[in-house]
Design goal:
alpha+beta, five-stranded mixed beta sheet, 3 helices
Length: about 130
């Protein structure tokens, strides 16, 4: 089981950084622009963040390949960024699949494409 208290402070800081990027840039840019800006903001806040990293993918305990993730923060929170008009359940399912495959317990889905930053925190028991 995941201890939510362990992740609350970190996810709060990440969401705050994403809100700052969205306030500064608003919507309308491609996802890669938000990725670059968010990396700068996370680093300014002293958070250990890696962008566009290859993570191993597991199935039934066996490594079956690798996939590039948008961000890994603090070695334990996976970020999936979008720049769309809105999020839907498919985007949430994608992130949950990544959490399972990468064996990472907490993920944040961040959408910079809407008029206000949209975010969802998702948890995966591993």
């Amino acid at each position: 089981m995941i201890n939510l208290e362990e992740y609350n402070a970190l996810t709060h800081q990440i969401i705050g950084a994403a809100m700052q990027v969205h306030r500064t840039m608003s919507s309308g840019f491609p996802e890669v622009i938000y990725q670059r800006a968010l990396l700068i903001e996370l680093q300014r806040r002293g958070l250990a963040a890696e962008r566009e990293i290859d993570l191993p993918v597991y199935y039934a305990g066996e490594k079956v390949g690798s996939r590039r993730a948008d961000f890994l923060v603090g070695g334990c929170v996976l970020l999936e960024l979008k720049a769309l008009a809105g999020l839907n359940t498919t985007h949430q399912a994608q992130l949950l699949g990544y959490l399972e495959a990468f064996r990472i317990p907490v993920g944040l889905l961040l959408n910079f494409g809407a008029s206000r930053l949209e975010y969802k925190r998702l948890l995966k028991n591993i």
